[in-house]
Write a structure and sequence with these properties.
Two copies of one chain form a homodimer. Chain A has nine helices and 14 strands. By secondary structure, chain A is of the alpha+beta class. Chain A has a seven-stranded mixed beta sheet, with helices on both faces. In chain A, strand 5, helix 4 and strand 6 form a beta-alpha-beta unit. The longest helix of chain A is centred in the middle third of the chain and has 18 residues. The radius of gyration of chain A is 19 Å and the shape is globular. At the A-B interface, helix 1, strand 1, strand 2, strand 5 and helix 4 of A face helix 1, strand 1, strand 2, strand 5 and helix 4 of B.
């Protein structure tokens, strides 16, 4: 592709161009040890303790969808990003950019949903900001939530920590969120309705950390899907990751919808799933802990970390072939989160 | 005014309707002790220490203007909000919502400006997020910065603390930012060019706190201007505030521009000014500390806190008359920050 001079939709896909933009424009210019690590949450040493700090803007369209809305998404997404560092999420900020003309009733529904999600996750909204822009200068509602969590002493969970011999687990089926948004946006109806999996996973992660001291990586496969997130981890840790296609849970309705629309579920966004990479000896008890959580009933071991093919993700297909599973390139589905 | 069912531009003005929306929709629903206080930064007790946490989204149009750009504004605004709690600003998050088609060169200029402002303020950008929305669904670039600062032990600075007998100081002239944006947006040119005062004020605040233990309130008069911010403080503290019109510094060029356009400089936004309310005995040394800072040469005592007219701001005019100075009502200048 010719080098572009303008920002493309794919720069926000979570895939290759996103990584390129973030590395070349942001991390290289603003660089410091914390930013350079490129985890979902930065880990800060403050006053003897360690804090996790993260931010995400949500621009999902439409703002209401089966299984959630932009408010629930904004709370769960940031809670999950904090939890992926092993932190206990505590405080969230809430900043809204509202398009003039948004019905106050819609805003109120979103706030109710934020309230419910925050209560479920056990976090407080402690500071906020409201901006309004003229009609046509935004699209209904954009939300930024930033979050602070407390990292328990002795924990070091990061994408850099995956090591050969570790097992790769996934907390449930993939592609639900992306296909739910797609169906809602385009007015498709599937035989079996697909709902977003949007959920706060900090309870699940607390249960995992309670049964294992050998958790290396926690990461939620959002934009770019499972394939892209695994590639990020492989890149950060410079280990190889092999995944068994057969082992990755995909709901029938999601699989059919993906086939119909030409999507690969491995690249479709999730908002309530967790990748857990841990020492093999602890796999059984971690799996049991995940499955005991309401959002983890379908958890499965989906692969392993290898010494071969460092930095790459390999897919062992249903037929036994092996192929390199790359990051998302281009844009699959804009404004998914 | 008839009760509206939709969000209006004035809901984002920083004035009366903003307050109403924030109170009725956000604070009442998401309420907790920290949010209810309604300071610019929340003060969190974590691990023995106290942290300040704040968030702001920036939607200023145009994104480049005399004296700064949206990047410098996003760093300075959040640094200043942290500093108003007495905190030493430490870590910022950076989340961008980019409209498809933004020239990468413009994005790069903004990032350079963020880098320079962060270096001057002594803060690190430690975590970030990038979203891209389709052409026409945002306006070039919106930025959210959230920030964490450390509050030194023993400090309690808040809008609730103003008390009768305190003096009200202002670090310099008002209206510069608002009129600079206005001129740039509308293509006006004034005889003497007006530039935004956008600047990080944490150095100034450190100097103030080094010479006085009787600082009650620090607040930067941004959206809604000096008049609106003083009203917020009067409301929070339930004290009266009297201001001498003659004592409030306004640059000649800003005054002329305001007269021409029918604006009252008391309601025009600032991005590099600080209101300091402190015990009267410390006024001289605080004033000296502010004036010794590069951004505080024109600092002045502009009024006092009174027991009479609790919750109200009174303006003593140049001719000696007194009138109630209300919050901004309606919207003066949308997308000023």
């Amino acid at each position: 592709m010719e080098k572009t001079k303008n920002v493309l939709l794919a720069h926000g896909s979570g895939g290759k161009l996103s990584q390129e933009l973030v590395r070349s424009m942001f991390v290289s210019e603003l660089e410091n040890d914390l930013l350079n690590r490129m985890d979902d949450a930065a880990s800060l040493n403050i006053g003897g303790g360690r804090l996790a700090f993260t931010t995400d803007s949500y621009v999902v369209s439409p703002i209401f969808f089966p299984g959630g809305d932009i408010g629930k998404l904004a709370v769960c997404g940031t809670v999950n990003d904090l939890a992926t560092s092993g932190a206990v999420p505590k405080y969230l900020s809430l900043a809204m950019i509202i398009e003039e003309g948004l019905p106050l009733e819609d805003l109120s529904r979103v706030v109710q949903s934020i309230k419910a999600a925050a209560a479920e996750a056990g976090v407080q909204i402690v500071t906020g900001d409201t901006k309004v822009v003229n009609r046509g200068k935004a699209d209904r509602l954009f939300i930024n939530t930033s979050g602070i969590g407390v990292i328990p002493e002795g924990l070091d969970i990061s994408g850099v920590n995956a090591r050969p011999g570790d097992v790769v687990m996934l907390s449930g089926s993939i592609g639900d969120h992306g296909m739910a948004i797609m169906a809602q946006r385009e007015g498709f109806s599937f035989q079996v309705p697909v709902a977003s999996d949007c959920a706060p996973l900090n309870g699940m992660i607390a249960a995992i950390l309670a049964v294992s001291k050998n958790v290396r990586v926690l990461r939620d496969p959002t934009r770019g899907g499972l394939a892209t997130t695994l590639n990020e981890i492989a890149g950060q840790s410079q280990a190889g990751i092999t995944i068994n296609e057969n082992a990755v849970p995909v709901k029938d309705a999601v699989r059919s919808a993906c086939e119909l629309l030409g999507f690969d579920p491995l690249y479709v966004a999730n908002e309530g799933k967790m990748i857990v990479i841990a020492g093999a000896d602890d796999a059984d008890r971690i799996l049991a802990a995940i499955r005991s959580n309401p959002y983890g009933a379908e958890a499965a071991v989906i692969g392993e970390v290898t010494a071969e093919r460092p930095g790459k993700v390999i897919l062992r297909t249903a037929l036994g072939a092996r192929r390199v599973l790359d990051m998302l390139s281009g844009e699959l589905l804009p404004r998914i989160c």
